[in-house]
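Researcher: Let's do a round of design. I'm pasting the structure tokens now; please hold your answer until I've finished.
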């Protein structure tokens, strides 16, 4: 594999790159017998066709490469639906490339198209119909997810969502915290389908931890749209945990990309590096500290001391994971609110449950009931109300 950086003062409409650069690269491609060229940027259908002619090699752009990876990683029915929708939306704009040999450009006699035009229109119609079907199926997925969220609200556990740049170590951390065996590999987009598991916190509180698709810079809008059903789990989370690769040289830029995607989803103001932290912001996990040298680890430790919403850890070794669990517990405690409850004295199980899950601030008993002032999270308050309805 060979890579080169090319500076472009002004993109050429027909080839993106300048004529001299195209010819120089053509010589390199021919000399090394290269059959596939990946351009890290957006390439129009016309530019793609012209470059393939000049270089006598297949050319794909950034979006095409992401779609190739997505197609190889999708495992579940939902994942395959999302990938196919994104791929067809991308392909529809490039159909002209498949029919150049049928003389589309020549046209007809005013009312007749060129020889290839009717086939092109048929293909566009078929792709449009398939896209419509896929969108309907994904709407069903969205409705199903909504029903699942409603079910969780009836017996609600707080939901904690892991987000981050692709290959930041989210799935490894997910497995470490939940003692699961979700696929976690050192490759881009290893996770395309959301996974949820129960998480036991140090206080005894139970939560649901969600692992989500990794983000990437300059993610095309139609790819974000295709995965919106998956990413909705993030918008519904009680706490968002941003997993960063502390060892990556572009960690700061990756962080900005993740925050941009979250903002596109309607989650703004989630900046854990603000002065003193932000109670309503995300928790930042600086992962892979086992790969840092001692000086870098010291710098990161000092950063964590200045900002209590940042945790340095290694999902691979487990170092620092207990500190993260403690921080998650404290964050959920912040959301607790004081409520007054009247519980029949005969309902000993509910009284015991309240003492186990809440902070009893005061209690007064009469002949029939215990009148309590209790600090409970919204999630636990919902669970209590569900218990009472069952009784």
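Researcher: That's everything. Go ahead.
Model: Designed sequence:
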């Amino acid at each position: 594999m060979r890579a080169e950086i090319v500076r472009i003062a002004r993109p050429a409409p027909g080839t993106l790159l300048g004529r001299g650069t195209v010819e120089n690269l053509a010589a390199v491609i021919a000399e090394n017998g290269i059959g596939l060229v990946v351009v890290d940027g957006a390439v129009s259908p016309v530019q793609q066709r012209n470059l393939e002619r000049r270089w006598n090699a297949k050319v794909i752009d950034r979006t095409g490469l992401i779609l190739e990876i997505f197609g190889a990683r999708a495992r579940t029915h939902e994942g395959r639906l999302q990938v196919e929708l994104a791929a067809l939306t991308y392909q529809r704009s490039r159909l002209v490339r498949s029919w150049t040999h049928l003389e589309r450009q020549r046209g007809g006699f005013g009312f007749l198209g060129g020889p290839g035009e009717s086939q092109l229109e048929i293909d566009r119609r078929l792709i449009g119909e398939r896209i419509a079907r896929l969108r309907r199926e994904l709407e069903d997925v969205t409705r199903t997810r909504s029903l699942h969220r409603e079910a969780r609200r009836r017996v609600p556990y707080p939901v904690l969502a892991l987000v981050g740049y692709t290959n930041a170590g989210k799935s490894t951390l997910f497995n470490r915290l939940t003692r699961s065996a979700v696929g976690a590999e050192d490759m881009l987009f290893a996770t395309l389908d959301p996974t949820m598991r129960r998480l036991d916190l140090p206080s005894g509180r139970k939560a649901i931890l969600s692992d989500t698709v990794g983000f990437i810079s300059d993610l095309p809008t139609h790819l974000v749209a295709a995965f919106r059903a998956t990413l909705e789990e993030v918008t519904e989370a009680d706490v968002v945990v941003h997993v960063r690769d502390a060892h990556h040289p572009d960690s700061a830029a990756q962080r900005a990309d993740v925050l941009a995607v979250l903002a596109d989803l309607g989650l703004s103001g989630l900046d854990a590096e603000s002065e003193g932290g932000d109670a309503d912001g995300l928790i930042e996990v600086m992962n892979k500290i086992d790969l840092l040298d001692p000086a870098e680890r010291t710098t990161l430790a000092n950063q964590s001391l200045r900002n209590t919403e940042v945790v340095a850890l290694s999902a691979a070794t487990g170092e620092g994971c207990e500190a993260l669990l403690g921080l998650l517990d404290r964050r959920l405690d912040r959301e607790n609110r004081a409520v007054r409850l009247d519980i029949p004295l005969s309902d000993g199980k509910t009284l015991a449950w309240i003492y186990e899950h809440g902070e009893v601030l005061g209690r007064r008993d009469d002949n029939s009931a215990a009148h309590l002032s209790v600090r409970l999270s919204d999630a636990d308050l919902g669970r209590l109300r569900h218990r009472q309805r069952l009784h």
